[in-house]
């Protein structure tokens, strides 16, 4: 559940004139992917930019990433990376179920701290866990993992409408947008409401496709219309750069193959099998009929 104790501390924003809202999370320090998503959002006419956490991560470039975000975005919530960075913790607190995934994720987190200034680390500590935005379509709730837990994974293969509806009821929201899991999805909830995962900007979706994703919400009095945007960028050039800077192969390989090396063992079995089937279908050459 959304913790009632958090309600007085939610960051509250009013955006009655907003007509197209871009929500981006899971950037992990991937600067060119972020720039590509920003260019796409601008081309689509976005007039409000929202970041729902995990700005820093395994690609490093933390200060540059935050410089871009702080200059372009209006609404922020903290992800587990922000909370752990502010605390100076060694672990990413990603909430993986597999110990090796946890250890690897924490290596990426520690690398991100090397390019994070004290000024930015202090700023990360000011970020709320949740935010609401009052729009012409109604209230939009922004979170990282879920409205109830910063590092909770919400996977589309395991969604239950009851907690989704309860979170929306408690917040009085028409929709909520999360990230964290690495997989974008949109789920309609009773009463014409929505639960949305924006996907992540910083890495592919473990599907052998190098593109990244964010959510674009059209705002109208009748409600929100959601578009999960697929964005390409020059991953090869970025991989060459960060590999030369010392980023480990377990973090660069997924950017150039679209196949994860960290986090797979922690996926639910149904989701893991679905993605593996998709990967095989994309990587297996079509049989020639000649």
Q: What order do the helices and strands follow?
A: EEHEHEHHHEEHEEEEEHHH
CATH class category: Alpha Beta
The number of helical elements comes to 9
Shape: globular
* CATH topology descriptor: Purple Acid Phosphatase, chain A, domain 2
- Rg (C-alpha, Å): 18 Å
Side-by-side strand order of the widest sheet: 1-5-6-7-9-8
Helicity, in percent? 25-40%
If classified by CATH, what would the architecture be?
Answer: 4-Layer Sandwich
Estimate the mean pLDDT confidence: 95
Our count of domains comes out at 1
Largest pleated sheet: 6 strands, mixed
Question: How would you describe this protein?
Answer:
The chain has a single domain (9-283), classed as Purple Acid Phosphatase, chain A, domain 2, CATH 3.60.21. It has 9 helices and 11 strands. Strand 10 (212-220) and strand 11 form a beta hairpin. It has 290 residues and is α/β, with parallel strands linked by helices. Helix 7 runs antiparallel to helix 8. The chain has helices spanning 31-43, 62-72, 80-87, 99-113, 118-124, 161-171, 235-245, 249-257, 269-283; strands at residues 11-14, 20-24, 48-51, 75-76, 131-135, 138-142, 175-178, 185-189, 193-197, 212-220, 223-231. It is globular, with a radius of gyration of 18 Å.
Main attributes?
six-stranded mixed beta sheet, 11 strands, Purple Acid Phosphatase, chain A, domain 2, globular, 290 residues, single chain, alpha/beta, five-stranded mixed beta sheet
């Amino acid at each position: 559940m959304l913790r009632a104790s958090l309600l007085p501390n939610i960051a509250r924003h009013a955006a009655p004139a907003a007509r197209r809202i871009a929500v981006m999370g899971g950037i992990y320090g991937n600067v060119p992917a972020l720039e590509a998503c920003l260019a796409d959002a601008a081309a689509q006419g976005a007039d409000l930019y929202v970041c729902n956490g995990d700005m820093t991560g395994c690609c490093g470039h933390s200060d540059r990433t935050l410089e871009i975000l702080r200059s372009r975005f209006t609404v922020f919530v903290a992800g587990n990376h922000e909370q752990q960075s502010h605390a100076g913790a060694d672990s990413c607190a990603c909430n993986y179920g597999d110990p090796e995934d946890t250890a690897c994720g924490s290596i990426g987190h520690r690398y991100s701290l090397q390019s994070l200034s004290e000024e930015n680390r202090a700023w990360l500590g000011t970020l709320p866990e949740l935010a609401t935005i009052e729009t012409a379509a109604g209230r939009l709730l922004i979170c990282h993992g879920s409205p109830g837990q910063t590092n909770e994974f919400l996977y589309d293969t395991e969604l239950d409408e009851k907690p989704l509806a309860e979170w929306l009821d408690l917040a009085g929201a028409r929709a909520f947008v999360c990230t964290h899991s690495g997989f974008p999805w949109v789920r309609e909830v009773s009463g014409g409401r929505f639960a949305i995962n924006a996907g992540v900007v910083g890495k592919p979706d473990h599907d052998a496709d190098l593109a990244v994703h964010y959510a674009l919400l059209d705002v109208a009095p009748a409600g929100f219309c959601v578009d999960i945007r697929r964005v390409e960028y020059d991953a090869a050039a970025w991989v060459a750069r960060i590999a030369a800077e010392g980023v480990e192969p377990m973090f660069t390989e997924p950017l150039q193959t679209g196949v994860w090396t960290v986090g797979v063992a922690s996926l639910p079995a149904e989701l893991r099998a679905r993605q593996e089937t998709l990967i095989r279908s994309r990587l297996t050459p079509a049989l020639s009929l000649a």
